[in-house]
Amino acid sequence: MLSSLLFAETQESVYYRAMKAEEAGDVSAALAAFEEAVEIPGPYTQEIREIIDEYNKALGSTAVIKSPWSLRFLGDLSFYSLHYSEFGSVNDVSENGGGLFFSLTPFIDYSTDDWIHSFGIGFSGDLFISNKDMPALDTNDWDVSLGLEYSLVGRSLMLDVGADIKVVEGAHVYSDFFAWVERDFYRFEKQRLGAAAWGYYDPDGPLSFALYGAWHRTEPYGFNGSVYVGARFEADSVVDYVGYLSAYKKALEDAEENEEENFDYPGNYPMNWGWNGQNPMAACLEAYGSECYGWNIGKIDSMYWAQQGASQNTESSVDVAVPRYYAKWLGPTIRSRVSYKFKRNITLEAKLNMFYGFVLDGPDEDYESMNKFNASWGVTAYWKPSMVTVYLGVEQIYKRYDLPIYYLGIYPRNTLLSELKAGIKWEI
């Protein structure tokens, strides 16, 4: 949750802000921005240090020793509109909804010559103001999250680990854990090449792990981009439908066999009929009192059997635990992001993430013949006139399963979640 907010303003953007102040002739603002930029790890650290030294020499001063500790706050407030659809399977689904999202994340940073340690605690939540028409997506009316994060950032290494605890409507509590580590191995011009590893674990859901080769291009303005290409492993709990149906069929046969063994025909009532060993007449007297004496035995018998059928129906009395199975997937994956920074504090950004998974291990042969394709893509425009950033974006998340006939009515073949989001972010 917090990693997307960490270092919202990069060294390149602060460097660019310093150059703009310098062009405007505001020396104090330029120097302050250069000093801010040099504390953020990035490709221009040495160059910025030299600029600061030149400023200090020109101003006849020496560098001011700053405290290694600093505090910053990041926030986000947005409104989003959702459209969810399922198609290409037995039943098509189309739903609409929307809500509000907020987050507030204070960070404590500790800086040394080449490293920045960051400790963050974040508060976030969703308030779904329009979700009554979304039974398939199954959204709650609200949820709140507490996130804890530690990050270590250096010239060529970045480590980010954390955990989120989410409370949803009905006092249900969920947690998840994440880790990201990335190392740069080679730099040339404004580009970097390296490797990265990512892990995610949800005790109630999936376990994911990925290894990537990484490429980055960073500029104060113009084209910037990052691409991660690699392999991803997933393990998730699924219902073993074949095992469940087999167990249910056996339990149903056993129950029917039991009923046949204990059945006595009308006119010879067994001693254990009814509840607590009651026969039909005793059960009638307990339920309706002396009125039973005015009814003929046929009516009493039919009422009794109707009650017995409703409460002891063979199928409703069969109780079989639903077996779970950890299905395992492996396949190629890509994560990419490209942006263009204009000189007027406007940035356009596009992203594309894809994963194609093959089943390594599943609950049955039909499941193991499945493949899946997950993708997300989106475009966002940002305008940052000051410490506040205004943004507007659209994103879609698409999932497709290549389903065997057996699973056509169980899983949707295609799902698409579309989101339109508008909001503001700020950094203090």
3D architecture notes:
The chain is α+β, with helices and mostly antiparallel strands and 428 residues long. The chain is built from eight helices and 14 strands. A 14-stranded antiparallel beta barrel has the order 1-2-3-4-5-6-7-8-9-10-11-12-13-14. Helix 1 (11-23) packs antiparallel against helix 2 (27-38), helix 2 (27-38) runs antiparallel to helix 3 (45-58) and helix 5 crosses helix 6 (297-311). It is elongated, with a radius of gyration of 32 Å. 17% of the residues are buried.
Count of runs of 4 or more consecutive helical residues: 8
Mean of all residue-level pLDDT scores = 80
| Cross-sheet strand order for the largest sheet | 1-2-3-4-5-6-7-8-9-10-11-12-13-14
Number of strands: 14
Rg:
32 Å
Residue fraction in strands: over 45%
Q: Could you give the distance between the termini? A: 19 Å
Short overview:
This protein is α+β, with helices and mostly antiparallel strands.
Topology:
Layout: H1 11-23, H2 27-38, H3 45-58, E1 69-87, E2 93-111, E3 116-130, E4 142-153, E5 157-168, E6 172-188, E7 191-201, E8 207-217, E9 222-239, H4 241-262, H5 280-288, H6 297-311, H7 314-317, E10 324-341, E11 346-361, H8 365-368, E12 371-383, E13 388-402, E14 414-427
Antiparallel strand pairs: 1-2, 1-14, 2-3, 3-4, 4-5, 5-6, 6-7, 7-8, 8-9, 9-10, 10-11, 11-12, 12-13, 13-14
Helix pairs in contact: 1-2, 2-3, 5-6
